[in-house]
Design goal:
The protein is α/β, with parallel strands linked by helices. It folds into 2 domains: about 250 residues, TIM Barrel; about 80 residues, no CATH class. Helices cover about 45% and strands about 15% of the residues. It is globular, with a radius of gyration of 20 Å. The protein starts with 5 loop residues before the first strand and ends in a 26-residue tail after the last helix. Bound molecules: flavin mononucleotide. Flavin mononucleotide binds next to loops.
Length: about 350
């Protein structure tokens, strides 16, 4: 199997398939949801502001909440001030995370001013930051980058070399520049150049929406693991499908009953865990996840007009015609529901929510 395992020092990532950090999406509920579906070897928090963390900002604390079930788990931080980042990384270690990751990719204007992809334009400062964080923590330290600021300033190879020299233990690369945002195609050729240039593990990222694409990314770049972002909330089964495809050359597709189980349990979990903004997350998730469901536009309409999270759940149950208590009593009519999950949504520029 090509994605069987990646080790970042003592941390075993098995299979070598990673859920990308996504602000507004990869909260504790979504991460557990993906973990339970299988096939994902490492999950990451969304990025957290080092300043917010050190000021004990409530939002930052919420972003750093995780459960044992989520291990191995990486916490991602961002910032631009070396000592503060080192301090924040040390808090991450104290909180028990398996890995600390530095964000060098966020394109949002507010973030670029204080870190994110803005640091790709100041390599001396970046080197200082790498060294400070490295000396502040004993857990594995990784970074996630875009390939550069613009087509004229592609710096992935020099950044990866500096990272390696400073003791960074793996590098994830989203194959786009900052100016590209999400337009155009991810440049896997640059990921391949980085793989040739360094010995630390290289994690390939960008535009993988199918198991076939994951395999192609691996074949074209030689990357050690593949990281999946936007495909996860629209097709949370993708990790399992990739694993199956890797093993057998084929993979199964979810049916309506699977989709129902998934959407219902994700929603129930959001409500149970009292995640702030549950209603918005439910609506967002419904807009991605109901494509492919028969008469999905009607379900989307019903969810979008709901006023409370409980109403959303009622409407989802009604749509999929959940059995009445009498039907529940009859084992023949019972819905298959052995493994409950939860699930969820995207907010494109929600980077700012971390500040
Ligand atoms: C809504 C959203 C939020 C994101 N938030 C983060 C983040 O917090 N940290 C980060 O390193 N990348 C973030 N990203 C970038 C993803 O991790 C990933 O690099 C990018 O989406 C490309 O991968 P994909 O083509 O598989 O989606 C975000 C992307 C999206 C769409």
């Amino acid at each position: 199997m090509i994605f069987e395992e990646l080790r970042i020092r003592n941390v075993r990532i098995r299979p070598a398939q990673i859920l990308a950090p996504m602000a507004g999406i990869t909260d504790t509920v979504f991460r557990r949801f993906i973990r339970r579906l299988g096939g994902c070897g490492l999950i990451m928090t969304e990025f957290v502001s080092s300043e917010g963390m050190l000021r004990q900002n409530l939002k930052s604390q919420r972003f750093l909440y995780y459960t044992e079930e989520e291990r191995p788990i990486t916490a991602q931080i961002f910032g631009a001030e070396p000592d503060r980042l080192a301090e924040a990384a040390s808090v991450i270690e104290d909180l028990g995370f398996d890995i600390v990751d530095l964000n060098l990719g966020c394109p949002a204007k507010k973030v670029v001013k204080c870190g994110g992809s803005g640091l790709l334009r100041d390599l001396p400062l970046l080197e200082t930051i790498f060294r400070k964080i490295r000396s502040a923590v004993s857990i594995p330290f990784t970074c996630k980058i875009r390939i550069g600021w613009s087509d004229e300033e592609i710096v992935a190879v020099p950044v990866a070399r500096i990272a390696e020299q400073c003791g960074v233990e793996a590098i994830a690369i989203h194959g786009r520049t900052r100016l590209q945002g999400y337009s155009g195609r991810a440049r896997w050729d640059v990921i391949a150049q980085v793989k040739d240039a360094v010995r630390i593990p290289v994690i390939g990222n960008g535009d993988v929406f199918t198991p076939e694409a994951a395999k192609a990314l691996r074949e074209q770049t030689g990357c050690d693991a593949v990281m999946i972002g936007r495909a996860a909330p629209t097709n949370p089964w993708i990790f399992r499908q990739m694993e199956e495809f890797d093993r057998t050359g084929t993979y199964s597709h979810p049916g309506d009953a699977d989709r129902y189980e998934l959407i219902r349990t994700y929603y129930e979990m959001l409500v149970r865990e009292e995640i702030p903004g549950s209603l918005g997350k439910m609506k967002q998730f419904a807009s991605w996840f109901t494509h492919g469901v028969r008469n999905g536009s009607e379900l989307r309409r019903q969810v979008q007009s709901a006023a409370t999270p409980h109403q959303v759940i009622e409407r989802v149950n009604g749509f999929f015609a959940v059995p009445t208590p009498e039907q529940e009593a009859s084992p023949n009519l019972q819905l298959h529901s052995e493994h409950k999950q939860d699930e969820f949504a995207i907010v494109a520029d929600s980077c700012e929510s971390s500040l």
